[in-house]
Design goal:
By secondary structure, the chain is mostly helical. Helices cover about 75% and strands about 0% of the residues. The protein is built from twelve helices and no strands. It starts with a helix and ends in a 12-residue tail after the last helix.
Length: about 300
């Protein structure tokens, strides 16, 4: 019974965080109509941090007094939240939300690279490498790489690729440095998101605060990004890291293209080509292989 509950728990966290982050690209496109890239990242981090702190107060959780905790979470918030949030927002000024969602699937590849180079303490299994390879093939199919990347601004493409790569190093960093401090998930996530808000604030307030009219849609997009795409998603992601490791948990980004493309096509009227749903199915196959869902389970005898 315990193992079944644990399995349901990580599956819920896996698909929950994947669906939330997949829809984030749609809301970034809406938020971009009113806020500059750094500003959009700042407001979603500030709102996310406030929500996480409220949850901490409700649960009676307190921030640790250890300066090392704040130093580590500040560093994590810088390269794993502040930089990619701003880069993805910037990138979506030049590429579609669907493309940004597809590029986000590079994260598991960057995670494996991180585990093979910088964070060598966490083992990478054969299934994970095979699953991630299949996922990459799916992403290339989804993009239609044989036709080339059709965009007039390669700087936007580079921004989303670098942003996704930053995410890839975040999971191993959390496993190596944050989780051993044994802080509740809400506290660790708050340190990361609050640190990102602090990093973005001086850059944001030194430039025009808005780039377009403040509409109900733009405000709603920021609220969704802060509440779900920042606060709730990280509450789901932190326990997932502990349950299945950074290589497997990073493969949630193989699900994001499916959500991003669907919302982009249905609501933003972005074009969908035949190879995109095919690539999506290949991505799902890669995620399943990485999770070891096709392995034979040992039968237990009483």
């Amino acid at each position: 019974m315990t193992s079944e509950r644990k399995e349901r728990s990580w599956i819920f966290n896996y698909f929950g965080s994947g669906m939330i982050w997949g829809s984030s690209f749609f809301f970034i496109a809406i938020g971009n109509t009113a806020f500059p890239p750094i500003g959009l990242g700042f407001w979603r981090c500030l709102l996310g941090a406030l929500i996480l702190y409220t949850i901490m107060l409700f649960r009676g959780l307190k921030l640790p007094k250890n300066p090392k905790f704040f130093l580590l979470t500040f560093a994590l918030g810088t390269f794993n939240t502040a930089i990619p949030f701003a880069l993805f927002s910037f990138g979506e000024h030049h590429v579609s939300s669907a493309f940004a969602g597809m590029a986000n699937a590079i994260t598991p590849v960057a995670t494996v690279i991180a585990l093979l180079t910088v964070f060598r303490g966490e083992k990478v299994t054969r299934n994970q490498i095979l699953g991630l390879f299949i996922g990459v093939v799916g992403v290339l199919t989804l993009i239609g790489v044989w036709d080339g990347v059709k965009t007039d601004n390669w700087l936007g493409v580079l921004a989303v690729v670098i942003g996704a790569s930053c995410y890839g190093f975040g999971g191993p960093f959390i496993r190596r440095f944050i989780q051993p401090m044994n802080q509740p998930y809400e506290v660790a996530a708050f340190g990361q998101i609050a640190g990102a808000a602090v990093v973005l604030a001086p850059f944001y307030f030194s430039q025009p605060l808005t780039t377009g009219p403040i509409t109900v849609q733009a405000i709603g997009a920021v609220m969704v990004l802060g509440m779900f795409g920042t606060a709730i998603a990280y509450i789901l992601y932190y326990p997932l890291l502990k349950q299945v490791g950074s290589a497997v948990s990073s493969s949630v980004t193989l699900l994001t293209p499916l959500i991003a493309v669907s919302l982009g096509v249905i609501i933003l009227h972005e074009q969908l080509k035949w190879h995109e749903p095919v690539g999506g199915l290949i991505i799902l196959l890669g995620a399943a292989v990485a999770q070891g869902l096709f392995r034979r389970r040992k039968t237990q005898t009483v």
